Amino acid sequence: MISEQETTRDDARAVDPIGDQERLGQQHAGGRNFAKVGSSRASTLTYTYGPGAIMDLSHFTVMPTGLDDWDRVYARRAAGEGSAIHAPRLVRTAQLLVGPQVSRLRPYPWEPSLGGDKRDNVDLGVPARVFPQWLRCTGCDRLAPLSFFVRDGHGYRNTNPYRPDQATIYHYNCPGHGGRARSGKAREAACVPARYLLACPDGHLDEFPYDWFVHHGGNCPKAAHPILKLIESARSSSGTAVKCVSCGEYRPMSHAISTEGRDQLPRCRGRMPHLGVFRPGGCDEAVRVMLIGASNLWFPINQSIIDMPQRDENAIRKKHYDQVCEAFRDTPGFIKDPADTLALQTAVIILQNHRELQHEQWVRELDASALAALIAQFTAGEEDEAARAERRRNWDPVELLVPEWRHLDEERFSATPGDSYDQESGLSVHTEDVDETVRALGVRRVLGIDRLRKINALLGFTRIDAYDRADDLSARFVPLSRKPPTWLPATEDRGEGVFIQFDEDAIQQWESRVEDSELWEAYRAAHERNAINRQSDTSKGGNTDERMPPARYWMLHTLAHALIKRMAMSSGYGVPSLSERLYAWKPDGERQGAAGLMIVTAASDSDGTLGGLVALAEPARFAQIMADALDEMRRCSSDPVCAMRVPEDPEDFLHGAACHSCVMVSETSCERSNRFLDRRFLVALPGGYKRHRYADLAFFG
């Protein structure tokens, strides 16, 4: 995390976007500016526009700030300090990846309006700041920081409390262009963000140094505060350019974007604008020019779970210990000593009268000795930072999926919907018969997920390159707060799904055949080139073969996309509303192999979804959907180009016979950004690659 000794302050923070209480109390006074400048769903803030990202509003852009500033918002509600999303398994993962101080997940600072008053709960929201703070006037092309345009009571207008989208930054007394400028007639003109930024792979982001750039690394010889213009012209061969009106210097932005120009950019200052701090002494990484809206400007680091009953005895005891720690979160030292009998007896009384725990069976049966044993089990020999770092390096995201797979694989569910409902996790599952035609395809089991609860947590983010596990955690993990966070933002969705499990023996036989083919070798080589071509140095290290998903993952991933497209036509949900959850890993010494997938739809509403998806698990309907989905994979409007696509050196794409005409879906539905897909692993396509026919590589034939 970021300590005060390691950083210097960004003096342009302005992190109180939802305003002080005095201004909110005068919200109906004429001409007052309101704090709200836009709105967003919690899921969008988790996956697209979280802290450190740039959100494009109607007239300018803002950046959500770090979690330190969110605490001021939560403090405006008495219940805010106690709000939490119950997900112990996900909290333990956050403690490993972010730090042991993380104790809970919290919902975003929002409450529904009461009594139909749209201004109710107006003091809640996600803090944000205007960024970038260099703007261009659309009337005269003036390029200047925000403080130049917004001053003396002019430059910013947001006076309609019901239309925050009308919030505008404008140039007061803009002289305009041409004849209007010569006539001296001034007027207001809207300002838009200057769209160039500097970023480095370590996650730092900064304003582009326009003054420094146009003067070739020096100062203007004519003025201490030169007048700059950002000129955009489609007629000019140089495109966008910066001009200094004071001295006449002119320089195209193409000089900064080119490979040669990149070497001449200033060194990274180590700025983290979402936290309002700089790294003293700057940063060793080279910067590159990026544009507002670039897809690689912000990559979230998310982890999610589907809450399921925990049958493992040790996991259950760990859950009980976590509940005890949460109950005594404000006084953690009270129960640290298992030998303090008086404190333990008092703690038992407190737990048995605790509002959220008093009805738990294990709490009612608890005594001082049992509590002492529970505390001793999980406090003895606490791991040091070195041991935690080693465990972090060896951590695999699959570990979050293993408990879910074990529950779905081992549990024997009723065939009647609702009979297998678990009140604590909110999971309700029923078994469906498997049609003989489907069983012949290698499907072992089909479950209807009547109700589920999915929790999604935001742990941090990266820039330029998406986060992967090539020792990137310490080098590229950008924190969400200046201090080590004790909580992380999360969303809680409820919905339904269909789970399909495949026969492990059939999968292993097919997998060994595929991984012995030249096509698989081409993918392995492309995966290695992809890692080498990544921008971050850390992604180039390590064993790329270990990070490459096995062949079963490719097949199940492609099938999941085919089913999503087909199920969307019969479930009443659009393709973007359906998502995949893949259970695909080989057996090893620690866990059994997994070969299954779940198609899920979920909504943040407490009532969940309407049942159109889980109804498709019915044997006859599922058999028809499976047949139709596989049949559609045999043809693509881009064939034969799509069907014959194989990555050859120097190509590094990670999909073969897959394109937007046949397999690819929206990124809200895909967990791997439409990578690791190939129709040839599903169905027999004509042709072949070197000594193998494609028909020999198809799982379903």
UniProtKB/TrEMBL annotation:
Ranges of residues in domain MrfA-like Zn-binding: 559-663
Top-level taxon in the UniProt lineage: Bacteria
Region Disordered: start-end pairs: 1-36
Basic and acidic residues bias locations: 1-25
InterPro entries the UniProt entry points to: DrmB, MZB
NCBIfam families recorded: DrmB_fam
Protein name in the entry: MrfA-like Zn-binding domain-containing protein
